[in-house]
Amino acid sequence: MIAREWKCRVPEAHAEGFTAYLYETGVRDSSATPGFLGAQIFRRPLIGKIELTLVTYWKSLDSIKAFAGEDISRARLYPEDEVYELEPDVDVQHYEVIEHGFIPGGL
Length: 107
Fold this sequence. Notes:
The chain has 107 residues and is of the alpha+beta class. Helix content is 23%, strand content 35%. It has a single domain, classed as Alpha-Beta Plaits (2-Layer Sandwich), CATH 3.30.70.100.
């Protein structure tokens, strides 16, 4: 399994709207791609901004290419990102997942 990590920052005022937009674009498009296994979105406050991290999980690098294009190291951005004053990382990171497990129902 491969994890794909992308980060961005938005002004606090756009955090909720951009999170919904992220579901409508990146998460929806990822989940419609064969080989997609799941996603997580993390958020943390910065000074005057919110940082969001999207981690998607994939069966293979070829699955990621089907979503991201030939250069999988580049972020897939969307035309309306600038409406949210998005500060995106243009590069993404990929990791081989060597352990994954969650306790059903939490701790």
